[in-house]
Design a protein that fits this description.
single chain, 229 residues, mainly beta, Porin, eight-stranded antiparallel barrel, three-stranded antiparallel β-sheet, 11 strands
Length: 229
């Protein structure tokens, strides 16, 4: 009888430890980052001429309530979005009557994000679950260095450059994904999230300071490797 009680106690304790460990996870993510709305607009007034780039990041979560379905989540991410220099050059030629043609070399937009919020998990089978999350945090963005080599109808500068500008602002994230449990300690999730912020980039020009108000918004589509702790 004593051996049976000891066995039951060990079983309960081991299940408790496993359940407690399953409350936490760390996820490593990577995928495509797709600019949308004004951030990808192809106009000089409020667009950024961005194209699809890539994203990498890390996140961690702790499920604390409702049978470990509701939790808090934090994440950091890095995004690069290249610039469509062909259309950027075309728009510059259209808006400068003295410019015949222009060749542009451009770095990508660089974005770093950090956010925290809530995550909810719905287990609809033994190995499959749906996730949704809502986060808020800070977005830091850097505009690209760009080198312009124009051709003019009349003589002009052989080249000019636009140096990077930086800003940071509050951001919001909303996302969802579907997860498959590969083992008790490893899972894989396919997810998408929408990220949004508003920035003000300052530039020095020959006529004085210029401030460009830009809406930064994109959708990250990622695969997340989840390690259950």
């Amino acid at each position: 009888m004593r051996d049976i009680l000891i066995g039951v106690l060990i079983l309960l304790l081991s299940n408790s430890v496993i359940a407690q460990k399953s409350n936490y996870y760390i996820g490593l993510k990577s995928g495509l980052s797709i600019p949308i709305l004004q951030y990808t607009a192809k106009n000089l007034e409020n667009g950024c001429f961005t194209q699809t780039g890539f994203t990498v990041g890390i996140e961690g979560a702790w499920y604390f309530n409702f049978k470990n379905n509701l939790g808090v989540v934090g994440q950091f991410g890095f995004n690069l979005h290249p610039v469509d220099v062909r259309l950027l050059g075309y728009e510059n030629v259209i808006h400068d009557p003295n410019m015949l043609d222009v060749t542009i070399r451009s770095d990508p937009y660089q974005i770093i994000t950090g956010a925290m919020g809530l995550i909810y998990k719905w287990n609809f089978s033994k190995n499959w679950a749906l996730h949704s999350k809502l986060l808020g945090g800070i977005m830091w963005a850097k505009t690209p260095y760009q080198l312009y080599k124009p051709e003019y109808f009349i003589a002009g500068l052989p080249y000019f450059e636009i140096t990077p500008s930086k800003d940071n602002s509050f951001m919001g994230i909303i996302g969802a994904g579907i997860q498959i449990n590969i083992s008790p300690c490893v899972a894989l999730r396919a997810e998408g999230d929408f990220q949004y912020s508003q920035m003000v980039f300052g530039f020095k020009t020959n006529s004085g300071a210029r401030y460009d108000h830009r809406t930064i918004s994109f959708i990250n589509t990622s695969f997340v490797l989840i390690l259950v702790l």
